[in-house]
Amino acid sequence: MSQIDAGKLRVERRPLQLRPLLESVLHSFESRLEGRTVNLELAGPEPHMLADAELLSLALRQLIDNALKYSPPGTPLDITFQSTPGRAILRLHDHGAGIPERDWERVFDKYYRRESARRLVPGTGLGLYIAREIARAHGQDLWIESAGPGGTQFCLSLPLENS
Ligand code: ATP
Ligand code: MG
Fold it and tell me: Which residue(s) pair with 155 in the sheet?
């Protein structure tokens, strides 16, 4: 946080593979998955990323932590990956109550928590702020996309070798 606040997030970009990174992050949540299905669908060739493994896994942990906090136990988590030339996007789709479109930007604000979340679970409202700062420090972004009825879909563009 202090690095982010000072506008000096130190990013050490090294070659990184997506699948092992995701698997190790998911593994760290094993005790909280409680019988949920995680559909990990990484179609296409493995993207060659140049990224800071620690920071990127911190960003992914915020997204998975939220998916588990804000969707009912037993609902699945869908993780998909889509690659077009020069751009690769990871999507995490949970099946919780979702976020109304008017709040799709605000949830990334520092300390912002929706009313419903405040009643549901403790938190500081920093997770998405940190995750987006990490994406942006890699020259990428994190945003919310329409996911049809129900749930929330977060999209993270990935720092590729040539980006
Ligand atoms: P922290 O991550 O610091 O423990 P937090 O989870 O409340 O606290 P953020 O991760 O920044 O903070 O999320 C901000 C707010 O966005 C949440 O309080 C919640 O209202 C909403 N939100 C985030 N992820 C989801 C989700 N997957 N489904 C529904 N609402 C969400
Ligand atoms: Mg959070």
Answer: 91, 143
